[in-house]
Amino acid sequence: MNKVLVTGATGFIGSNLVKRLLKNNLEVHVVTRDRSHVEQSAISDSPVVIHQHDGTTAGMIEIFQAAQPEVVFHLAAKFVAEHESQDINELMDSNLLFGVQLLEAMAVTGVQQLVNTGTAWQHFEQEAYNPVNLYAATKQAFETLAAYYVRTGLLKMITLKLIDTYGPNDPRTKIFTLFKRISLSGERLNMSPGEQRLGLVYIDDVVDAFLIAGQYVEDLTDCEMLSYTVAPERLYSLREVAALYETISGKRMNIGWGERPYRSREVMEPYVGPTLPDWEAKVSLAEGIRKCLDA
């Protein structure tokens, strides 16, 4: 693996993946709909080759003809926890139309190796398929579309299903972003009862999983698509995570446990499927929290 293409490169996970790929001396191509998104992102100073997608299938094929990557890492997605009607078009465009254009361009240009990003939310209550929300349904729908390209011998694919990810300088509105804010401001945070369990994986370990999958996909047989969960060794309840954060930071947080209800289809126990061979989470939750606080 010497030349790769990354979608979603300006996101938190994507940008960290790009930096590691460059550190490993790979040639990295990224696809974006707006060059300014790259120029204003965490990889703005990185020596990547930027390809601006015009939204058409023909345009995507031209990108692949120019880039000629060996492996594609597909991380681009629109996430909405609880969608509203106005979110439909962007969810479909970002998670399905863009994705199938990517698949078609790979097939047309003979690029066979794909590492896809899925979500444990495709498996509500541990079921083989039961989407927590519409976002998770679009992730499953993409896999269904990809199955055609795989089963006809055009692609090989590994999907990494993520649970909870975190790390320093995470711009997303995630739990540690909230904890940091309220520990500094003293404001009260209304929370659910907090018994739901989380599968928190530190960003360096997440990137390791993508790199291993990028190597492993090369060894798949034709017409093969596999799925793995990126999960830590131990799950923690939200209350346990908060208590650990307080202990490590030395700051009490003003959390109102049970002051809001669990949301509809709250995931109380995350799905943990087969794990990626030769991968394990190396950074403990306590160590990861310290790294976030020290950043």
From TrEMBL:
Instruction: Quote the InterPro entries the UniProt record gives.
Output: Epimerase_deHydtase (IPR001509), NAD(P)-bd_dom_sf (IPR036291)
An example of a Pfam family matching this protein is Epimerase
Show where the NAD-dependent epimerase/dehydratase domain sits: 4-217
Q: Which family does it belong to?
A: Belongs to the NAD(P)-dependent epimerase/dehydratase family.
Which protein is depicted? NAD-dependent epimerase/dehydratase
